[in-house]
Design a protein that fits this description.
Helices cover 26% and strands 22% of the residues.
Length: 341
């Protein structure tokens, strides 16, 4: 009998890890499925945030007695320590699981080495299945652990001539409906959206995550408005649809520190050429999501009018979304290049 290919089940576990109801938390995104001897899924679970049950425990509870002799497929090595909840490795052992397939090693000094505990209990352990995909789902957690600040993704939508609005400078629908729908999906996966006061005053955005019908999604990111200008009391960022935070913007590193203290792991910078350039010049951008629409605006504000350094982006995906192109990449180390003026 050939060994099963666990990638399909791991892909489902990764999808669970990216569920919309995950809360802003100091914990990683983790998904788990329990698979019986016939390779049928009998339990599913994902971790929603600090203090809630871990993915393995939820999946085991759904599987019940059928978990005995089954396989647990989980995106992160099962933990070995006791925090607000008990060790997942012990829960798997107690449930009678005979095989654990996981994607990524847990780097924690206290929480790691769960695989060793499982092996010591006689459980077969298979590591490294879809490791890249699982790590990407939990990349904000890995980043915040190693740097002490949230992962920062810069998102922009520009015309072919690099403009973010037309000559009026006001709200300009640059991308199409498919790209806008994708943007709302991304919003629902991050912990905070950051814009400048200029964007709020010009566009009056709600900065919420909505579905195709305009209904609020279950997960709403923290809305962060940066700048010294006063935001009007009637602005939509002050409504009750999501929590808002206001910051003077003098020190972006300090802002990220405050967000980190609030368990914000992933920040999406959406608003304003000035704010985007400020994050870039402070070397605080980690990822780029860049929409390019098939339109020439001819006049209007450009995407990065004041950036002072040349930066290289390691592109990992270029795709069509409706009629628009989206470029996804990781920001490489900045190189100061002051061009002759």
């Amino acid at each position: 009998m050939t060994s099963p290919d666990w990638s399909e089940h791991m892909a489902e576990a990764v999808r669970l890890a990216r569920s919309e109801d995950v809360l802003a938390s100091s914990n990683p995104r983790v998904g788990c499925v329990i698979v019986d001897a016939a390779e049928q899924v009998i339990g599913r679970g994902h971790h929603r945030g600090s203090g809630t049950a871990h993915a393995e425990v939820i999946a085991l509870a759904e599987a019940g007695d059928r978990a005995r002799g089954a396989t647990a497929v989980v995106t992160l090595e099962p933990c070995r320590h006791t925090g607000r909840t008990g060790p997942c490795s012990e829960a798997l052992i107690a449930a009678g699981i005979t095989r654990v397939v996981y994607a990524v090693d847990d780097p924690g000094e206290e929480s790691g080495s769960g695989a060793q505990a499982l092996r010591e209990a006689g459980i077969e352990v298979i590591p490294g299945v879809l490791a890249a995909e699982a790590r990407h789902a939990a990349r904000a957690w890995f980043h915040s652990r190693s740097t002490g600040r949230p992962l920062v993704t810069l998102k922009a939508a520009v015309s072919l001539d690099g403009r973010v609005a037309d000559a009026s400078g006001g709200p300009t629908a640059i991308t199409g409906p498919a790209a806008r729908a994708l943007s709302h999906e991304w919003r629902s996966e991050v912990d905070a959206i950051v814009v400048g006061t200029g964007t709020v005053l010009a566009d009056d955005p709600s900065l919420t995550a909505r579905d195709a019908r305009g209904t609020l999604r279950p997960r709403q990111p923290l809305r962060v408005v940066v700048g010294a200008r006063e935001v009007p009391p009637h602005a939509r960022v002050r409504d009750s649809s999501a929590v808002s935070m206001f910051h003077d913007g003098r020190d972006l590193s300090a802002l990220l520190g405050e967000l980190h203290a609030r368990d914000v792991q992933h920040v999406l910078v959406e608003g304003g050429p000035t704010l985007a350039a400020a994050f870039l010049d402070a070397d605080l951008v980690d990822e780029v999501l860049w929409f390019v629409a098939p339109v020439l605006l001819g006049d209007g504000p450009i995407a990065l009018p004041s950036a002072t350094a040349t930066r290289q982006v390691a592109v990992h995906d270029v795709s069509m979304v409706g009629e628009d192109v989206v470029i996804e990449g990781v920001m490489e180390r900045a190189t100061d290049v002051h061009r002759d003026r």
